[in-house]
Design goal:
The protein is mainly beta and 79 residues long. The protein has one helix at residues 61-68; strands spanning 8-10, 20-22, 30-35, 39-44, 51-53.
Amino acid sequence: MRYSKGDRVRHPKMKDWGIGEVLLNTDSDSVTVFFSNVGKKMISLKHVDLKKISGKESESSILDNIKSNEPEHKGKKLC
């Protein structure tokens, strides 16, 4: 399955990890996801099929807050 940056997902075997957000586009064998309860994880897609979620199920104030606090450097050098 292909995952795109910003996709909201759940890990079917690790429900206590909470809602995750895909950090980078991928169509390889792994994907990097930030989960609301455990942080950043690299997931091997050979061993698990993450469930894409949307609507009410995908709402997460934690993930929304992280996204809104990202610096907007747009290629500028940060000191």
